[in-house]
User: Fold this.
Amino acid sequence: MNPPEKKPVPQDFGLNENSYRPLTKSEVNAFMEFLYMLVRDCIEFLDPVQQLRDLLLEKIDYKGILKQHPISEELLPKVQEYTRAKNDFIQLLHLTQAYRQALSQWEAYCSWNKGRNLQRKELETKCGYDAKHMSHCIRLLRMGIEILRDGVLYVNRKKVGDAEYLLSIRNGDVAYEEVKNLADDLFAEIKEIKTELPEKVDREFLNQVCVELVEMAGVC
Assistant:
């Protein structure tokens, strides 16, 4: 609903290509690698139970988190404390990450816009929202409520009675505010609904069903 209007440039973030140029990707990645090693070293000296230690050291991709997401402004003082970086560098890092995130969003938007289905784009211009996605959203929310409430998956929406309305959303004939309010109401309803369904999947039962289906198909 609010796509970027233009390609960001360093000057939009108080940067320039000469005296206060943005850090290169290699420079940012090198600093993030250093920060990652500091975090890992801190964890290595902890003495938690083994399960927690494995979680912190093996199952959380700190490096990916640090490199893919800008460091929030409130964490910058702590990062500076850990790394002993100068004020100017921390400020430059903050501005560079903001610039590169905006640039990445712009490039992703351009790529998405270039490959779009023209008919779908025209429909979105007409109704102000992605009609196909909104139709699926309403259908899935209603089906989720039905599953939780009745324990039954109602796939045939004609039998349920909302097929025509879903199609009208799909065709862009329903105002954005109406479907947005409906989606909000359904989200609220599905959070409050009481269900007798178990919280966890019976994996042994599902595995047995899979085995039986394979045997029925005659696959060795």
Notes: The radius of gyration is 25 Å. The mean pLDDT is 87. The chain has two domains: 10-114, 118-220. The chain is about 65% helix and 0% strand.
